Amino acid sequence: MKPPWESRIFYAVMWLSIWLGAGCTPRPEKPNVILLTLDTLRADALGCYGNPVVQTPHLDRIAREGVLFEDAICQIPATLTSHTAILTGRNPKTTGVRFRTALVPSEEETLPERFQTYGYDTAAFISSSVLDPAFGLTQGFGLYDMGSIGKGETPVTNERRAEETISSAIDYLNKKEKRPFFIWIHLYDPHTPYEAPPPYTTMYDPDYTGPLRGSVAEITFLNATRGAHLSERDLQHLQALYHGEVTYMDHQIGRLLEALEKKDLLGRTILVALADHGEALGEKGRFFHGDDLYQPAIHIPFLMRYPPAFPPGQRVAEMVQSIDLFPTLTELCGIPLIAGIEGKSLLPLISSPKKNPGGYDKHPGFLETEADVVAASNKLYGLRSDEYKFIYHSARRRPETPLGLFTEIPLKGPAIVLARVKGDPSVRLMAHIRYRTPELYTSRDLQALSRLNTTAVYAETFGTDPLHNQAKRQSSFLPTPEGWRLQATPDLYHTARTYGLARGWPTEWMVLEGVGVDASLPAQQKTGTFVIDQVELYSPSLRYPPSPRFRNPFWVIEDFEDLSSTGLVDAGAGPAHRIDIQWRSEGVFGGQRQPQITITFLEDQDPLFLNELYQPVKDPREERNLLPETLESSPNQVWLETARRHQEILDGWIAKESGLQEIQELSPAQRQALEALGYTK
Hints:
This protein is of the alpha+beta class.
């Protein structure tokens, strides 16, 4: 009898011989992954999505040889926030990345981190400073290539063309060893400005002789005026410029496909092409993206190609979401899924052999525009189900500026309004600017904020700007004690002048005529309480005579320590509400009292009338809102019940907490880069 250790060796050798003799092969190698994110690309700009004019042969090839999702949506129509959703598989509200200056939390495990953990080389090739490493999406990447965009704090350019980005990716592939790779390639060309290189600039409209060139300034002007002065011919040219960018980008994607074929990688690589969001090109008078939830911005192209797993030419009609990519790729590559992923794997819809399509875990699509980090209710939310899109106008259900102060200060240079607030975080500072004619410049016909929108020439509201940090750097003559918040407007002169020029108003006679507090509470919150004190204006260009209210360069608009002050005036705007003012005695700011204000909103009329309900598949242009304000309940009960059902689901989601993290102080280079790309809010 053989000793035990000899028996173990004998059986081990025997089983190895059987395994080799049976012709068994090693485990198949892991598939490579290339993720192409195509910034600002509308689905209807591609031939494979039915566009009969725009030439996109290479993206069409990916669709022809793979899978096309006909009804794909993004979660939020903005670059940084949408890419974060794609790379985390989680909604913006969950990660807290809901604004263009948000910081991706380090505790989020991103898609590249997951692949890196399981033996993949990871690299990113980025085409815009909007995805600067400072924002945190570098997590998990061994290489994060920004090319010519910038070096450290010195901005070289704000974006780079697809040619450079694709060339960098090809160089990386040519130097790659045999380890599997996860590569993210971000192409920015369809984003503003619409300035493709020749011959693509004139490819779709060579005979145009008008003034439009597709610059950021032009798009900003069109968005501000809702295209009021844009001719049909100019609009056609603007769309042609955009389509030229799309075709140029597609041509560069062709170079990537050719390089993959030369290295015999195309058949062994999962290739994904999807947009982070779309772009408005004049629909409903809108341009650019980020401020609405209509189809041009939300409906995205979504293509996947991987011959070993997907039969070619599939078109999937089910509604899918960009956050579904995370679990789809990890399952396809045999990587365990982490907890907390909100997307659902798409493999039941597209695998070969075909799995049960009913196995796809359908889930509602939560939509949002970029958050106002001061008043979270002043934004749009949406819910997308298989058949419907419900848009919730939270800002329209609350008063715009319920409380305010009347003042009259000319705007002749930099001017920032500051106030100190304690209490409800939904309160934000507002400033009213009036654009006057020479005759009305010295008129004092306005006595209360409630009349600001009906007298003189025009009044426009500019609120607290989350991107604006200039006020925080001013050495205010009164410090902000613990528990109080300093709120500030943007530079009112610069902002109002830019806006006035866009609308054609007389900017020489701008006047700051009112300062208000917007108590725009979240939808579920009926009551808010806050304390306010010391509203002042920082304006180094103004020169007033000596006065207790003027301490150069600060002009005190309202000092609540003055016993003659009655506090803020209720403008009476918005839904029915009640204001209660109590005076508190606190020894702060060198005085003895501040007004404590409680605002309570009374029951509204049916708020559903303020919202929108569409059927995107049947009505892709969203021409019919099923919830007009004149909707009668009896003949349209089905729409009302549908809206209420969507509202209930959305309310539960909105009520969840969000851990927003913001880069409080952008560097000059980051700020300059964002503003140059049109992110001027």
